[in-house]
Amino acid sequence: MAFKEICGLKEYCKHEVLEHTIELAVEIAREGREGRKIGTLFIVSDENETLKRSKNLILDPLYGHPKEAKKICDPNVRETIKELAQLDGAFIVGSDGVLISAARYIDASSKCIELPLGLGSRHMAAASITRDTQAVAVVVSQSSVVRIFNDGCLIAEIIPEIWLLSKESIKITGPRIEEKVADLRVVSVKEDIA
Question: Which of 18, 54, 125, 130 is the right S-S partner for 104, CB 3.0 to 4.6 Å?
């Protein structure tokens, strides 16, 4: 994925931080938690403006922890984030990749926002905050699709199974058959029937 293009010309967005955030979002969409699908929202960079336009829904579970213990690229932190993703509200990810806050309510306005029908309040919050700040938003939908917003617009959609498979190359050469069986993609050699 072209993370540099997604960040665009936004001053604070680092493509490495966005890449880690998207990978984590894909993991959450794919795995869910405790056997159920969950949705969440990550607001990446321009943290000061984002904090001004949001408030905590509950006591912040990330408050008071040292920065080095809250880096989104740290595998140990990622499991904690997956647990916290079950809470209502958004995560604020700093431009340096440090998680600043969790369970945040985003003050969102739908004015001048056009979203496809069927996308809910989490998507509206993502569009609104990216319209009003220099942040990029990554939404994990309960339908297991990851959507990315920039400048108030939906700019990318990731279907986790396809995205994960694209990271692994198929080793079968020549003619092949691809089938979907339940949640599996099966690729097999196509045999010539002569």
Answer: 54
